[in-house]
Amino acid sequence: MNLLLQTSVTDLQAHIAVTGSKSETNRLLLLQALFPNITLANTSNSDDSEVMQMALTGSEELIDIHHAGTAMRFLTAYFAVQQDRVVTLTGSSRMQERPVKILVEALEQLGAQITYLKEVGYPPIQIKGQKISNSKVTMAANVSSQYISALLLVAAKLANGIELTLEGEITSVPYIKMTLALLTDLGIETSFIGNKIVVKPQHQVVSKIMTVESDWSSASYFFSLVALSKTASITLTSYKENSLQGDSALVALYKEMGVDSRFENNTLILTKQKDFQPKEINFDLNNTPDIAQTIVVTCLGLGVGCHLTGLHTLKIKETDRLEALRIELTKLGANITVTNDSLTLEPSAIITSNVKIATYNDHRMAMAFAPLALKVPIIIADANVVSKSYPDFWDDMEKLGYKVSEIIS
After folding, report:
1. Claim: this prediction has a pTM higher than 0.70
2. What is the C-alpha to C-alpha distance for residues 339 and 324, in angstroms, rounded to an integer?
3. Fewest CB within 10 A of the end CB: N or C in the chain?
4. Residues assigned a catalytic role
């Protein structure tokens, strides 16, 4: 499905209910599988979370998680500790290009039995669940925090817990802290000092309702819309000022891009700063790489340059996001260069209209480029890819006055 996006609206006004955080939901679904007396509320309706839930509640030996990278990492750890259960984890052709070797080797240090069925280091993998008694494990910390979180989520169910030593610069620390905070909320003892994380064994938790906060990554597109608008007031529910989610850094980052934020009764209200004058942006996104696509597209729409660093994990996402951004932004007339871990956009006052943006099976490519319709008509290819994390996205764009038309092109 290809969509043409256009709008003549200059004042954005809407109240949007954003689905629960995919990151929190997937962590809590795994914890609920380990501790069934947990009840979850406001869970994400994303494809990724549905895939995760089906895998955790089903009994099939072959589990296809499609494009869901978080599910691949978390489920690898989960099934590795399910004694006497044998499963094969596979996914889409892109998923079979996304590395799992660092996680597999860490689990093998603990005593897991995992076999690669095609290329070494990549899915599909066969997992023979074991009773794990080893507790000490060392892992490289500079690739994906999801590898680390996968271990931490199953740690309390291991006979002796986990003592995890991280080597190198730690990537996406807020996501690790989110995992540990959820464990702490369940009464599981944890510590994170220097490069060492400890999770103590605990085989039961008290019955509890865990309410998932709305997704901050999904909120990023509304920050971008407000930044690119003339005037705006958008209210988003349900958000916390002291969020566990790393992407809540949007509040500070987008303040430099013309967006004011305030919290009222678990809602987040975004407004456009009066008399805002755009300026060049320089951000280190090592802790929040998932919002890089949104930020660079916002900068293009504002006509300002940007230099973004800390982006090395974008090479192994749903697509090589750095290369995808370079290709698609160039179509729009941008002058952009990328390295293995950075992106530089030169300022430009002109954006080419009616460009068809390829999305590469990547939900964030579709949503990050959508705000540009405030500047020029734009076509989003394979637009239904947004269901991976935000199925209601195009409906919500229409609430803001977007004309969303399906086209054949």
Report:
1. yes
2. 12
3. C
4. 290
